[in-house]
């Protein structure tokens, strides 16, 4: 599915039929459901692959007080290597432990959680990621926040 997001042309409205039909609030609801799903995977020590990259918990050391560090896990998003190469992006290489299981979004489960049908959830996420890829292609600044 990765090649879907390596765009040689800008994304036109005809490629985003679902986003055109949904309100901003509905799109946010779908992504909130995806965000909750990703959080549940974190709790089970899994890495989430979402087509353009991966979400993972990585071990870091937080300084808590003078000379004391606390090992904690921090959520990070790493854009996939083909995407970084294709769009000529720089990013830190985050090392994810090899034994960490990688899972993909479960559109059924997100649909049940958000009360949208599975196809709407899948298309909404796919088309949003297409928009993200289009913004990268056109060298636009992008802000994408998750709760």
Automatic annotation (TrEMBL):
Superkingdom per UniProt: Eukaryota
TM region positions: none
Gene Ontology, cellular component aspect: microtubule organizing center
Domain annotation CCDC81 HU: ranges: 11-90, 101-147
Protein name: CCD81 protein
Organism: Sakesphorus luctuosus
Lineage: Eukaryota, Metazoa, Chordata, Craniata, Vertebrata
């Amino acid at each position: 599915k990765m090649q879907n997001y390596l765009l040689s042309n800008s994304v036109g409205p005809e490629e985003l039929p679902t986003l055109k039909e949904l309100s901003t609030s509905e799109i946010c609801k779908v992504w909130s459901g995806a965000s909750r799903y990703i959080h549940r995977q974190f709790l089970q020590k899994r890495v989430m692959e979402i087509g353009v990259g991966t979400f993972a918990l990585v071990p870091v050391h937080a300084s808590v007080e003078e000379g004391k560090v606390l090992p904690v896990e921090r959520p990070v998003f790493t854009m996939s290597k083909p995407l970084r190469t294709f769009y000529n992006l720089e990013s830190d290489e985050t090392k994810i432990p090899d034994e960490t299981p990688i899972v993909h979004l479960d559109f059924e489960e997100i649909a049940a959680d958000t009360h949208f049908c599975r196809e709407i959830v899948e298309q909404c996420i796919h088309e949003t990621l297409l928009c993200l890829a289009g913004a990268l292609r056109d060298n636009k600044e992008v802000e994408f926040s998750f709760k």
